[in-house]
């Protein structure tokens, strides 16, 4: 079965507490496992950046559902391409809260979210491609 990687950025509708983020993470994990979706969600300064990996039709349906979630707004797809492998195969959904500044690869991830927010590249690469490269290594 072929897979796609979909990366999007969105703005939180309000400041997210640790409890809010844990609830989002738990829901994503339980929803993604039965539909063969993996990925990672990053939160920083009121912005989300999420990588979803799975069959293209599944990701399209999931993204439509995600767009309706009132906890965020201004959702924008940065990347939606076929992939030869999953970058996050072990996680139905990983969650990294960069507001706590303890995350592995913190500086690189904050730069990716800032670039995605501002719709700019990092060097010659898009924020989504940069993000995928950070975790490919």
Automatic annotation (TrEMBL):
Residues 3-94 form the BLUF domain. Signal peptide: none annotated. GO terms for molecular function: blue light photoreceptor activity; FAD binding. InterPro entries: Acylphosphatase-like_dom_sf, BLUF_domain. It holds the Pfam family BLUF. Gene3D superfamilies: 3.30.70.100. This is BLUF domain-containing protein. It comes from Telluria aromaticivorans. The lineage of its organism: Bacteria, Pseudomonadati, Pseudomonadota, Betaproteobacteria, Burkholderiales.
């Amino acid at each position: 079965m072929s897979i796609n990687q979909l990366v999007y950025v969105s703005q939180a509708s309000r400041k997210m507490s640790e409890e809010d983020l844990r609830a989002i993470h738990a829901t994503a994990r339980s929803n993604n496992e039965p539909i063969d979706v993996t990925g990672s969600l990053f939160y920083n300064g009121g912005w989300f950046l999420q990588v979803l990996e799975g069959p293209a039709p599944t990701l399209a349906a999931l993204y439509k559902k995600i767009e309706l979630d009132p906890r965020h707004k201004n959702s924008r797809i940065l990347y939606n391409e076929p992939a030869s492998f999953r970058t996050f195969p072990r996680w139905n959904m990983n969650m990294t809260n960069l507001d706590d500044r303890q995350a592995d690869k913190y500086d690189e991830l904050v730069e990716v979210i800032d670039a995605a927010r501002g719709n700019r590249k990092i060097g010659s690469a898009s924020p989504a491609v940069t993000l995928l490269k950070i975790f490919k290594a």
